[in-house]
Amino acid sequence: MSRSCRLIGISRQALYQELQRKREKARTLEPVLSWVHQIRRDLPRLGGRKLYHLLQPELERQDIKLGRDGLFDLLRLHRLLIAPTRQYRKTTQSKHWMRKYPNLYQDMTLTQPEQAYVSDITYLESLEGVHYLSLVTDAYSRKIVGHYVSDNLSTTSVVQALDQMLSERTSRGTAIHHSDRGLQYCSALYQSRLATQDIQPSMTTGYDCYQNALAERINGILKGEFLIHKYRNRQELEQVVKESINAYNYKRPHTSLGMKTPAAVHEKAN
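^ thats the sequence. predicted structure below, dont judge the formating
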């Protein structure tokens, strides 16, 4: 030990003091790892910035000095950093004869919930095969207000998610429903549902997925942070989707919402 210390130019006492500081720091940060695991039970792939936001009140209560960079170092040390994932499967069938509507959403300024909704369909997998998740999200609060899991891309399946949103809607003013130009959204059945509630259809122009970026983002969050396993069957998948949407709405903070949850923003505004 003495020879090693001489080689690196430090005293044995300095080395022991440094090792002692590291051990004390590790003991101090042990509760942080426990809190991270607790949060990730409900939010299994929550990233470092949002984790730090959720941890801050407890860090202050326990008087633990840990900055955001320090948390990232701790997560990296224990291999708890989340690597991004990308998956893609085409769910939009936009080459059809049905009427397509102009993009009314792109010029909107949103001031409260229930002014505009965005919808999309994404695929999920179980051991039984491929399933499809239809989502309707409030564009102001980012709260998922309608969802339905099906085994196909039929219009009646997609309408189930819309009906859930309509049943929970409290406002009776005009609103916008924005989607891609998929045949399900252009269908007479879907459009008639919107018309009965004085909701105007809005659609992407051409094949630019960025014109429905919010809906795509919500899909990505659910699949990238919550629905990360292959489930046994549709029944199990439906239960996990329900639990995941509840965690997304009520527990996951959003940077774009000032680190509030979608449900908090939605309910406060209403």
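The radius of gyration is 24 Å.
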